[in-house]
Amino acid sequence: MLAVDGITVRFGGITALDGVAFTVEPGTAVGLIGPNGAGKTTLFNCLTRRCAPDGGTVRFEGEDLLALPPHAVAERGIARTFQNLGLFPRLTVRENVMVGAHSRGRTGHLAAALRLPRVRREERELRDQADDLLRRLGLADVADQPASGLPFGTLKRVELARALAVRPRLLLLDEPVNGLSHGEVGQFADLVRSVRQDFDLTLVVVEHHMGFVMGLCDKVVCLDFGRKIAEGAPEEIQRDPAVVEAYLGVAV
Amino acid sequence: MRTIVTTLGTDRVRRLRATLTVLLAAAAAGYVPFYFAPFQVFQLTMVLLYAVALSGLNLLVGFGGQISLGHGAFFAAGAYTAAVMLDRHDTGHLATLPVAAAGCFLLGLGFGVPALRLRGLYLALVTLSFAVFLPPLLKRLEPLTGGSMGLTVEKLQPPAWSGLAEDQWTYFVVLVVTTVALLLARNLLRSRVGRALLALRDNESAAEVMGVRLSLHKTLAFAWSAMFAGVAGCLYTWVIGFVSPDSFSFVLSVTLLAGLVVGGLASLYGPLLGAAFVMYVPSVSQDLDEAAPGVVFGLLIIAVMYVAPTGLAGLPGRVRGLVARRLPRPAAAPDRTPETGSPPDARPEPQAGDGPFATPGPADPAVVDAEPVGAPPRTEKE
Ligand SMILES: Nc1ncnc2c1ncn2[C@@H]1O[C@H](COP(=O)(O)OP(=O)(O)OP(=O)(O)O)[C@@H](O)[C@H]1O
Ligand SMILES: [Mg+2]
């Protein structure tokens, strides 16, 4: 489904990604781990066209992802969440989710200004779909509240709801349980598992919480200083000396 | 079940209240020109046309998160389009409106493209330079624009069948155009397009990841905004019957922006309040201090921003918030705690025990109004 090959990204002097290659098969969940600054977020940014790599290719279902304009990525069925919450703080929770459905709407500027009947119809549909998602994620209570000021755990779910509103086939989660309490991590993991099933998602998950990654993923890729140092099933990765060294800083 | 019923109930109540408000406003607006003296009616007409310009500016600044110190120039472009058409080609007033609108839309589109690469102070500077540069240009183009003498054209004249005086007829015509313009702006904002604009304002890269086409929406926001200013300028020519370069100095641009901020950014009725400010405050300050009206004007802006940092439109919400904080509300507390303290996966409880009024509505409008740059538009009504 997704094939990353030889991706290299340089920021001035530092090489954030150095020839990283891996593939994601349809329906699987791939964990992307690595110490701070390893380049995980940068990789996500390449996949969603937030940054242009200096070399390498990314193919999504055979199509060259790097040739797309940034706004077209969602249309192809790729959604993501952000490491430090990328919500729209002054929009309500429902509006946040409705923006997620942007690429599925057709309304243009003129039609919107005249509020043609088809605009009303589309608005109603998008709104109903958003409300369904909010109910699904237990957010119906806060639908009309502005996103700013809600508890962190709630915001994490709002972001997930917004990403699901894209109707993605590939979902990229950047540290989804970072900053959640122990109990919340478990609940979020259950939530991700159930939406993965229901929405038939392929996942790539960046996360430092090893329990979360190992419990969810079919395959794990480990980066360190921009290089892929290991790839394999979760149990293998946990025992891999290179991975252990990268995390602990000492050879075992 | 209970919650659904009550939600439906409040929805209907809200709609009823909205309809009543609209009817009352319409009745008041229709009654006004027969009650006030012609000069006061003229002033109200000016408030209405400034409101058009400000709602355009609001699209760009309040909802779009961009900035323009050059809207006076778009205003001037609309005014001169109308004046030249009336003066040279004798087209009749009505024909000038679509031309001024389309012309300014295109002009705005032209400015929207460089605006994509500029932000904040740089954008302010570029738009300001447009506003500074236009009056001398108008003076230079003397054969067309009448140079520094300006152009005197025919004002709107009431048709015989209406039986109205000139000021009353003009007021009604401007009222119609303003209503249409404000409706267009509101429709735009309450749609996919408006959400895209707001999303870009709040978080550009997240918006783009969600599929929002940044360049399209930002340039079109500029174009719409310029169009509204141009329409306001066109109305200005209809009402005043005279344009000259000195009426459109860069001070106009600054005044418009100040009016918008005072009225309330990103609020649907902020532009009306701001327009009243733009119209009345300069003359009031003239009365207070003849020597330096600018000083009084400036002080008043500072005073308003001190009392109502979210603009006049946000004032009622702030007051409500303050009052609510002063008066202890025992009923509100248990209502709130489960929400903030709830674990993330808690299913929405049907709040059966909380009585008939415990609806999951917009929980606290005061919170919305306390946002630094005004509230999101759709949360204000309905
Ligand atoms: N826009 C940028 N400009 C310059 N350097 C950047 C930029 N983005 C990332 N970097 C650098 O690239 C490297 C990789 O960063 P990245 O954010 O991808 O790491 P990460 O694996 O996501 O780390 P973390 O676990 O802390 O989130 C870091 O050294 C970072 O400083
Ligand atoms: Mg990161």
Automatic annotation (TrEMBL), chain A:
The keyword DNA repair does not apply. The keyword Nucleotide-binding applies. One of its GO terms (molecular function) is ATP hydrolysis activity. Keywords: ATP-binding, Nucleotide-binding, Transport. One of its GO terms (cellular component) is plasma membrane. It comes from the Bacteria. InterPro entries: AAA+_ATPase (IPR003593), ABC_AA/LPS_Transport (IPR051120), ABC_transporter-like_ATP-bd (IPR003439), BCA_ABC_TP_C (IPR032823), P-loop_NTPase (IPR027417). Residues 2-250 form the ABC transporter domain. Transmembrane segments: none annotated. PANTHER family: ABC TRANSPORTER ATP-BINDING PROTEIN (PTHR45772:SF4), CONSERVED COMPONENT OF ABC TRANSPORTER FOR NATURAL AMINO ACIDS-RELATED (PTHR45772). This is ABC transporter ATP-binding protein. It comes from Streptomyces filipinensis.
TrEMBL record, chain B:
Residues 327-382 are annotated as: Disordered. GO terms for molecular function: branched-chain amino acid transmembrane transporter activity. Keywords: Cell membrane, Membrane, Transmembrane, Transmembrane helix. It is found in: Cell membrane. One of its GO terms (cellular component) is plasma membrane. The chain crosses the membrane at residues 16-36, 42-61, 68-86, 92-113, 120-138, 169-189, 220-244, 250-279, 291-308. InterPro entries: ABC_transp_permease, LivM-like. It comes from the Bacteria. It is a multi-pass membrane protein. This is Branched-chain amino acid ABC transporter permease. It comes from Streptomyces filipinensis.
